[in-house]
Each structure stands twice: as C-alpha cells, then as structure tokens.
Design goal:
The chain is an alpha/beta fold. It is built from 9 helices and 8 strands. The longest helix has 17 residues, at 23-39. Residues 107-327 form the Alpha/beta hydrolase fold-3 domain.
Length: 354
C-alpha cells in the first residue's frame, strides 16, 4: 500500500515537478479538460446540447453482456431503479464463477464529474468498474445519479441512498445468483472525486437511518478515491498546483452548481472536514486514496484527520505522483497499484485509530 501519511497539516512544500506521462496520455488529458471547459458555463449551467455530442455520443460505451477476455471475462448489463428520474445502474460481474466459490462482495460505485457530468456508460468509468470487478474480485453496481445543476443538493445523495435501498430489497436484477452468488452483507461503496464525496454522504446517511432496518445490505467499508471536498478557503495545495496539475484547477473545483441556490463551498455538502462534521455511530471503515499531484489533497487529508479524531477506522493509500483521476488510466502503473490496495479492504479488518 502507499505510505499512510499523517493527516491534518496542509503541505507548505513547493509544488512537485509534473509526473512523467506518456504523450498519448497527455493528449487525452488535454482533450478531457477542453471538453469539460466547453460544456461547463461560467454561470454554473451546463451546455447539455454540446454535452450530448462530446460526452454521451463520443465517450460512452454500451453494456457488454458477453465475456471480455481482456478484463478477465467481465460482463456488464444495465438495470433500471426508477425510470421517472433516470436512476439506473450498470452491473459488472464475472461471466461465470466456480460452483464452490464463496459469494462475492458487492461494490456500489459512484462516478466523478463534478456532480454535473458523466454516467456509468462513459468509457473511463466503465473501464474502471471492469477492472474493479476483474482485479479486486467484486461485483460492481455503478449508479447513474441525477446531475446538477438541473438537480441540485440533495438529489445525488438521495439517488445514492435509494440505489442501496433498491439493492437491499431486490438484490441485483439480471444477475443469476446461482452462477455468480453475491453477499450484500459485504457491501462496499467506492467512487472518485464527486463520487468520493457521494460515498461519504451516502455511507453516513445509510449508517444513521437505514442500516438498522436493512434486510440484507450491510456496509462493510468505503473507498473514497481522491474525493471532492472543499471550502471558501484556499489551501496550499490548491494554490501551488493551480495551472500545474492536470484535470483540476481552481475554476473547475469552484464549479459548485450542485449546492443549493445561494450556497457557497462552506456548505456541509462540500465542507465536511471540520469538527462539526456529524458522523453516524455505525459509519463504516474507510480507505481514502490521495494523490500527491492533486490540488484537492489538503482537503482530503483534513477529511482523514476528522475521521481519525472521531474514532473511525481509516487507512490512507497515498500515491505521490498521482494526478486527480489517475486511476482511470490503466497505462499508469499507479492505476494498477491502487486496485491492489483496494483489494485488501474486503479481506482486512481496519481498526479505529487511537
């Protein structure tokens, strides 16, 4: 695992030199950044017509119910949770499992995109979930939550919780439990960036309200990968890496159209890193993934520190050269290493900090 660093003190270091990247990856990141800037307007709205062309048409892939040899025979299919609000999920499961195999853990995944962009069908997230299934050994349920600014706080959190309620009551539709048995009592939440924020909020809501009466689903752990947390304050890492690190800069991280009208980034949906952060007694163990080339890393370390001071079980997987969203690019060695770190969580009891 990456080095577990002490959280709570923001770094005053000089910005690290840009991590080495293949030219092809640099071009991908330039294209991704240009697409984001093209569709997100400065007034907090999204150009959905352009978005449908650049993202839904060019970047999306269909579910593939046939085995994929390149990812360990992982198949995928979609199912509907609530058609009225466009709430659906994509499942990633082995094409078959050994008859004697124990039931597989379930990982419910929430994609990134600043609460305003993307879906489980967008290629990088589809690819991440395929690798999570094949390399970590879990059945992945990737949730398509409603997007801002058309659907502001708390829409994404409501959808995230309702996806868990649906699974608790219905299991995973379309999955043959006799071929690929699953264990909903060993359910993990994972997500990156905005999805990492959703992981925290959904886990806390579930633990506080729904876990006591759940029929089948129990949260065994959560993996926020470079989660989006923030505030009106500018941290040293934000200032040092603005315009240096790819993907995230101050303007993009300030895009807060998911918050209620009139709210700023100190709203508790974004700013969950102070002592007033309320955590349920049954809040699950966490593994927080932090990249050393991510402008949001100081907020993430504050989050880890709050969990520790409140007595919650937490580990940190740190990758010094990792930029925001790194694990979506399999050509990077760290993208493979983080999967090995994540693989530990379903098989290891994480003890609370002293």
């Amino acid at each position: 695992m990456g080095k577990d660093v002490a959280a709570g003190g923001e770094s005053n270091r000089r910005p690290p030199p840009p991590p080495p990247m293949p030219l092809g990856l640099r071009l991908q990141l330039i294209g991704l950044s240009a697409a984001i800037d093209a569709v997100e307007r400065r007034d907090g709205t999204v150009n959905r017509a352009l978005y449908s062309v650049l993202v839904e048409h060019l970047m999306s892939v269909r579910a593939d119910p046939s085995p994929d040899a390149a990812t360990g025979a992982v198949r995928s299919f979609d199912f509907t949770i609530d058609a009225a609000r466009g709430l659906w999920a994509r499942v990633f499961a082995p094409a078959a499992a050994a008859q004697a195999a124990a039931p597989m853990p379930v990982m419910v995944y929430y994609h990134g995109g600043g609460f305003a962009l993307f879906s489980p069908a967008v290629a990088p997230f589809d690819g991440v979930c395929r690798r999570l299934c094949g390399d970590v050994g879990v059945v992945v349920v990737s949730v398509n939550y409603r997007l801002a600014p058309e659907h502001r706080y708390p829409a994404a959190y409501d959808d995230g919780v309702d996806a868990l309620r649906f699974l608790d009551g219905n299991g995973i539709p379309g999955l043959d439990g006799d071929v690929v048995p699953v264990d909903l009592a060993s359910c993990f939440l994972a997500g990156e960036s905005a999805g990492g924020n959703i992981v925290h909020q959904v886990a806390n809501r579930w633990a506080a309200t729904w876990q006591p009466t759940a029929k089948n689903l129990r949260l065994a752990g959560m993996i926020p990968v470079q989660p989006y947390f923030g505030g009106e304050e500018r941290t040293p890492s934000e200032l040092a890496l603005d315009g240096v690190a790819p993907v995230v800069n101050l303007r993009r991280s300030d895009f807060s159209a998911f918050l209620p009208e009139g709210a700023d980034r100190d709203h508790p949906a974004a700013h969950v890193t102070d002592e007033n952060a309320e955590l349920a007694e049954a809040f699950p163990p966490a593994m927080v993934v932090i990249g050393g080339f991510d402008p949001l890393q100081d907020w993430q370390r504050r989050y880890v520190d709050v969990l520790r001071r409140k007595g919650k079980a937490v580990e940190v997987a740190e990758f010094p050269d990792a930029f925001h969203g790194f694990y979506g690019f399999p050509e990077l060695a760290d993208a493979g290493k983080v999967l090995q770190d994540i693989k530990v969580l379903p098989n290891e009891k994480v003890e609370p900090s002293e």
